[in-house]
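B., you asked whether I could sanity-check this one before it goes into the benchmark set. Here's the sequence:
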Amino acid sequence: MKNLSFKILQQQFADYLKTGANEIENVILDQLPISVFERLLVYRTAYNQRIYSSLKEDFPKIYEILNEDNFNKLVEEYRIKYPSTYWSLGEFSKNLPDFIAESNWGKEIKYMEDLAKLEWIKCLCFLAKNSDYFNFSSIALVPSEKQNKIILKLDSSVIFFESPWALHKKSIKKSISNKINYYIIYRNNGIINVECILKKDWNILQKISQGLNIEEIVEKTQVCNEKQISKCFSNWVKKGIISHFIYRGE
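And here's what the prediction gave me:
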């Protein structure tokens, strides 16, 4: 057996798990009755099963529409095109939407690319850092004539997504006349929520994400008056979409 550094051994073992490269076989003692090949195969089989399970957990709806056999084929093709370069399986899923777009899978099921993107967004939403929440009753401390200068802040988990496909419905169809579906994905009390929202609400939320204050939002969102926007704000605070506010006193 060759004397190799622990770092090289780690790399060779990782290469074997990911690609089947067999350099590692030359540095492991052969101890019968189980051969080196058989012992290593146990680890590689477990690794492959974990990859499959991880992708199934991250993309449950893709698994649902494909069934187990086809999903397994998708995973195998994906692994060949995008071999893992990470020690953690958490990052391995992120290229699946791109792979679907480039492959026959996306051509055969037109909405699969967008559905995969949405499912990956849900993973990112779940992993987002927690925002620092505070009591919104402190708005009362801001002089009433200055409250339109308040800047509302979205929760750190909030992600926007748009698609021509009605991904929120059981029967996914393309919207009539290329109408866009607007989605907001957010985490509230550990639960991931996906909502298809009206375009006017989307526009308001976009303005909030740009850091505009309430007065500027009212001015730039012509379809809404101040009372309507206030109602939206209250609803989004309750849902945890808006997590806090900033007021820079003048």
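One thing to flag: The beta strands are 151-154, 159-163, 181-188, 191-197, 242-246. Otherwise nothing jumped out at me.
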